[in-house]
Automatic annotation (TrEMBL):
Keyword Cytoplasm set for record: no
Gene3D superfamilies assigned to the protein according to its UniProt record, in alphabetical order: Hydantoin permease (1.10.4160.10)
Name of the protein in question: Purine-cytosine permease
UniProt GO molecular function: cytosine transmembrane transporter activity
Gene Ontology terms: cellular component: plasma membrane
Record has Transmembrane as a keyword: yes
Location of the region described as Disordered in the Swiss-Prot/TrEMBL record: 1-22
Organism field: Ulvibacterium marinum
Keyword tags: Membrane, Transmembrane, Transmembrane helix
Membrane-spanning parts: 65-89, 109-133, 153-171, 183-208, 228-247, 268-291, 311-332, 353-373, 379-400, 421-437, 443-462
């Protein structure tokens, strides 16, 4: 055994095989094939059953949806390839450890808390998705698009039971979560394809022009929704996973890649999940909108409900119900697991099992309130807007530290608990652009990129300034 192999074996034993605080050794690197299936499965899941129909409630046109998603998802893939994967293979560190070296331990605690809570809310929305399918045999009243509170005891009981099962699976650890996702994902992708084909048949589509005319020139948004234009679709789909790519969360994934070209595998997730699956789910809702029930609601000025369970059941029956349940699980399971890890960084003495149960409990409580799922477009935009600027700190330090004359990993080098340059840069960029969004009614995803850029620039300026004061 070579000296390198001995060192790698020792490193793996010390870090428990996950290399949380060490660069991933060469012997543990994975080929692009390892990432292809993961991204295809992770992004064809519960969120897709909600997001597709919600685009229709925003009154999108055919061009806005089909071409807008094509471009927006391409921008997301480019962000993963040339930012996230590029930095990941250079440093081979997790997001959390890399942030700790730049920001200091105290600031990372704040990041982990925000990350964990937002993960719980997202998981809660997916519990809601699964509940709409489980409730069908019990003739449960489905939540409306405008609902915020639980609509009955049946809903509460079903959500609590689903949340308990998902939390227990997540608490068993990553291997259990991974096995569950790998088993469920092919069935979910097949269900999306089947739903799309059946929906096209139900809509009487026989040509591309028929398909295009489903959305046509668009429509007025439903009550309580905002109108989505081409640029809304492009920018929103680009930043739907902002926390993962420009926010650098997937550094933890791509640190295992042999080279940065593995970043291209994210296209499998974007064009299977965030293109095919979103459009297939939108087609399901288009079928429902033609029903007498939906037409009656629209004539009364009410928004027809966006409940994935009944929509899939209408298309492919019991397989649709099962697919929606599994889709909710495949998103909620790893999301609760990730939230548990974020909380464990704050409470290191608490076991992984119990922090995951805590995360699952918070997610289940969130799942009781349909607003998190029914307002998923807005929530995902907020999630990315809050977390993405932290990624700008990593990106700008990596590419511009020499030009700016700043010290890399300053918190580690200076042995400080929190780096004021990071705190001030994030607070100013977040506060300024969130105020602009609220005051001038600007779509939140439109200000995510400016906030990200400003945070990166301010970080360089403040780092230069505070370095002079320290030295």
């Amino acid at each position: 055994m070579s000296q390198v192999s001995v060192e790698e074996k020792i490193t793996e034993e010390v870090t428990g095989g996950e290399f949380e605080r060490e660069p991933v050794p060469q012997s543990k690197l994975k080929s692009w094939k390892s990432f292809l299936g993961m991204y295809a499965g992770e992004h064809a899941a519960g969120t897709e059953f909600m997001i597709g129909p919600l685009f229709l409630t925003a009154g999108v046109s055919a061009f806005d949806l089909i071409i807008g998603l094509l471009l927006g998802n391409l921008l997301a893939v480019l962000s993963w390839r040339f930012l996230t994967a590029e930095i990941a293979v250079k440093n081979r560190l997790t997001l959390y450890y890399q942030l700790e070296r730049i920001c200091g331990k105290k600031l990372v605690i704040g990041y982990n808390l925000a990350n964990g809570i937002l993960f719980c809310f997202l998981a809660g929305a997916m519990i809601t998705v699964s509940a709409t399918a489980v409730g069908i045999p019990f003739d449960m009243e489905m939540p409306k698009l405008t609902d915020t509170m639980p609509n009955g005891m049946t809903w509460v009981i079903i959500v609590i039971l689903i949340g308990a099962v998902i939390s227990l699976i997540a608490s068993k650890g990553y291997d259990t979560v991974s096995r569950a996702a790998n088993w469920m994902s092919p069935a979910i992708v097949l269900a999306f394809v089947a739903c799309g084909v059946v929906a096209l048949n139900q809509l009487g589509v026989t040509s591309f022009s028929d398909f295009w005319n489903i959305w046509g020139e668009g429509s007025e948004p439903f009550p309580g929704q905002i109108k989505y234009t081409f640029w809304h679709v492009v920018i929103w789909s680009w930043f739907a996973n902002a926390a993962m790519h420009v926010g650098m969360s997937d550094l933890s994934v791509f640190r295992f890649a042999k080279n940065a070209n593995s970043g291209w595998t994210t296209a499998a997730g974007m064009y299977v999940g965030h293109y095919m699956a979103w459009i297939a789910a939108a087609l399901l809702y288009a079928v429902y909108l033609k029903s007498p029930e939906a037409q009656a609601l629209l004539s009364n000025g009410e928004a027809p409900p966006v409940a994935p369970g009944p929509l899939a059941n209408n298309a492919i029956g019991i397989f649709g119900i099962i697919a929606v349940v599994l889709a909710g699980w495949t998103t909620a399971n790893p999301t609760i697991y990730r939230a548990g890890l974020a909380f464990q960084a704050i409470m290191p003495k608490v076991s992984t099992f119990w922090v995951t149960i805590i995360a699952g409990t918070v997610a289940t409580i969130a799942g009781l309130f349909p607003a998190f799922a029914m307002k998923l477009l807005g929530f995902v935009a907020l999630y990315g807007f809050i977390l993405a600027p932290f990624g700008a700190v990593i990106v700008f330090e990596h590419f511009f530290h020499r030009q700016a004359g700043i010290v890399k990993n300053y918190a580690e080098v200076a042995n400080i608990k929190y780096n004021k340059a990071v705190l001030y840069a994030w607070a100013i960029s977040f506060g300024l652009f969130y105020f602009i969004s609220l005051q001038f009614d600007v779509f939140l995803s439109f200000v995510t990129l400016p906030a990200w850029l400003l945070c990166g620039v301010l970080f360089l300026v403040f780092s230069k300034s505070f370095k002079k004061k320290v030295n």
